Amino acid sequence: MTDDTTLVVEAVERVADRLVAAEPTLTELDSQIGDADFGVNLRRGLTAVTETVKTDEFNGPDDVLDTVGRTLISEMAGSSGILFGKSLMEASDTVTDGIDYEAIVAFAVAYSDNVATQGDVTLGSKTMFDAIRPAVYALKRGQELDDVTPTQASAHAVKACEYGVGFTIPLRAKKGRASYTEWRSVGYPDPGAVAVLLILREIHDLVEQEHDETVEPSLPGDLDDVL
């Protein structure tokens, strides 16, 4: 495997471990606004993902992400598996030539757009899209600056995602089974949004390790004044 492929496999394994460990928290959140199955379904899917990436041979980072997406769709029950998995599959083509800042931004944009399309969601729907979109915007804003390191870029994404998760707390759910709970969803963050934040935090930890640089989550340039 190439270095980029190995790095993506490691990222997938670390993200899977982190989300599986967070299953009780995600389940508890989903019990407040949904049907309490999100954490369990995610654990099932990611357990299968971990087994797959440990045994399969991959032709590149795009092949890894496409395989992860297909595994999530086949192993996760409910709409979440389709949403996570299909979006990964559709966005995987952006990293065919390797991993650099431009490819990461392209991947993030494609993934975000697919979540919006597949889930038929917009900002304010109280879904994981509310956490993804700010992170993508922060990455794109960082791309416009000349001196942003990979570690700073991932820190920007984490901080923007944190704002997105916080944004979901006072919202009433408009999509999925959470929308059936009426006003009971108000006062809790969306579990999918929290899962996205955990993913980005784990990726940030890996980027810090790879580049031997510690950067606290922050926003790029003038975004600190906006949010």
Keywords:
single chain, mainly alpha, Serine Threonine Protein Phosphatase 5, Tetratricopeptide repeat
Description of the structure:
The structure is a single chain. By secondary structure, the protein is mainly α. The chain has one domain: DhaL domain (Serine Threonine Protein Phosphatase 5, Tetratricopeptide repeat, Alpha Horseshoe), CATH 1.25.40. It is 68% helix and 0% strand. The protein is built from 10 helices and no strands. The protein has helices spanning 3-21, 23-33, 38-55, 61-75, 79-91, 101-119, 129-143, 150-168, 191-211, 223-226. Helix 7 (129-143) runs parallel beside helix 9 (191-211). The mean pLDDT is 90.
Strand residue percentage? under 5%
Shape: globular
What number of domains? 1
User: Biggest sheet, open or closed, and with what strands and sense?
Assistant: none
Helix content: 55-70%
Mean pLDDT: 90
Structural class: mainly alpha
Provide the CATH superfamily.
DhaL domain
Poorly predicted runs:
none
Radius of gyration: 17 Å
Secondary structure tally, helices: 10
Number of strands: 0
Order of helices and strands: HHHHHHHHHH
CATH C-level class: Mainly Alpha
CATH fold type: Serine Threonine Protein Phosphatase 5, Tetratricopeptide repeat
Named CATH architecture: Alpha Horseshoe
Termini separation (Å)?
A: 41 Å
Brief overview:
The protein has 10 helices and no strands. The protein is mostly helical.
List the helices and strands and how they pair.
Layout (H helix, E strand, L loop, with lengths): L2 H19 L1 H11 L4 H18 L5 H15 L3 H13 L9 H19 L9 H15 L6 H19 L22 H21 L11 H4 L1
Helix pairs in contact: 1-3, 1-4, 1-9, 2-3, 2-9, 3-4, 4-5, 5-6, 6-7, 7-8, 7-9, 8-9
